Amino acid sequence: MSLNDTVRADRIHIGFFGRRNAGKSSLVNAVTGQEMAIVSEVKGTTTDPVYKSMELLPLGPVVIIDTPGYDDEGELGSLRVLRTGQVMNKTDIGILVIDMLSGIVQDDIEIYNKLKQKNIPFIVVLNKCDASSTDALELTASFRQMTGDNSCPCIAVSSSEKTNIYELKELIGSMKPETSGRRLVADLISPKDMLVLVMPQDVAAPKGRLILPQVQMIRDILDEHAMALCVQTDELGSALEALKNNPGLVITDSQVFKACAEIVPENVLLTSFSILLARYKGYLDSALKGIEAIKSLKPSDKVLIAEGCTHHRQCNDIGTVKIPNWLKAKLGFEVSFDTCSGYEFPDDLGKYKAVIHCGGCMLNEREIGYRIKCAADQGVPVTNYGILIAYIQGILDRSIKIFQ
């Protein structure tokens, strides 16, 4: 991906699912026009999800995901099937690939049921039509009879002969998922507003670049024809004094919320990158309600700290060190913590009293939504780094005033 490309979390995710040797990888290569996936007659060639960012008009920027076979076997095979299920959690459009040579089997129906259960729009692709003697219309009728679904789009293709690949891409392009239309901050400000962004460049900050939420926030401000003044915590006071008028909003890294709250005048709006991300990803209300669970924690309780990215943890890491210490100071006792990061998120949350989630800048809206729903279905409240830290620091009401 080039520096000018849309970040993966903001792309439409298109996942290809099916049994081993159904021709998923060949189909992915045909759709992308590239040899992005290894193709072999040996079952189980794809052992991990393979991601490819590309432009697919009229959808625009997308991520194509090739997954391991859903019928993989053995201990490693079970893990691969688990990975495939995790890919579904972030999939905006699903492609169910059925091998016309072997016909419809129970694994195909199970994939169909999971796609329906997760409310993922999908296309049924009957692959290898060039080599099969089975009539595609008959197989389509059989599939619809087995599932009771007469509305799902079906198409017969040949990856090797490129038969109906253009038509498949057109069909995918017609299934553009609905988007929330949410903005990070642009809808809360006006053109020519001055915003101050507090961005500590400490040991945890990447060398030579800014982290994704900072870049996205600056771009959203510029798109609104407003202005962004970027400072570190130590320079915040001097920056405010240098401005002719108070800024319209101060946005800070949550880790320095307390220091910024002491510097920024009470009549100036103050919030954090993480809180704005919670709103952008669609779980601000859930995260605010989750604070009630934090207030009622007991010493025997267990909390899950979940992050959307994987990174080398420093000695003063926010998820494993700072938040547990801040929470201990607030509650007056320790609770136990588990952590998960990246695309790993436990299906069973029953042992947790609460989930504390990062802003989720590396996760798309569907995966964040899946995690929130997964927790809600099990009665486990979810809150957010920024909201939790604002609560601990006693400035929660102030940090969400911008939304009121």
Task: Explain what you see.
It contains 14 helices and 14 strands. It is α/β, with parallel strands linked by helices and 404 residues long. The protein has 3 domains: 166 residues, P-loop containing nucleotide triphosphate hydrolases (Rossmann fold, 3-Layer(aba) Sandwich), CATH 3.40.50.300; 91 residues, Rossmann fold, CATH 3.40.50; 113 residues, Rossmann fold (3-Layer(aba) Sandwich). A 6-stranded mixed beta sheet has the order 2-3-1-4-5-6, sandwiched between helices. Helix 8 links the parallel strand 9 and strand 10.
List the helices and strands and how they pair.
Elements: E1 12-18, H1 24-32, E2 50-56, E3 60-66, H2 74-88, E4 93-99, H3 106-117, E5 122-127, H4 136-147, E6 154-156, H5 165-173, E7 194-198, H6 212-223, E8 227-231, H7 236-242, E9 249-252, H8 257-263, E10 270-272, H9 273-281, H10 284-295, E11 302-306, H11 318-331, E12 336-340, E13 354-357, H12 365-377, E14 382-384, H13 385-392, H14 396-399
Parallel strand pairs: 1-3, 1-4, 4-5, 5-6, 7-8, 7-9, 9-10, 11-12, 11-13, 13-14
Antiparallel strand pairs: 2-3
Order of helices and strands: EHEEHEHEHEHEHEHEHEHHEHEEHEHH
Low-confidence stretches: none
Helical/strand content category: alpha/beta
**Fraction of residues in β-strands:** 15-25%
In CATH, what is the class of the largest domain?
A: Alpha Beta
- Write the CATH architecture name of the largest domain: 3-Layer(aba) Sandwich
**Helix amount:** 25-40%
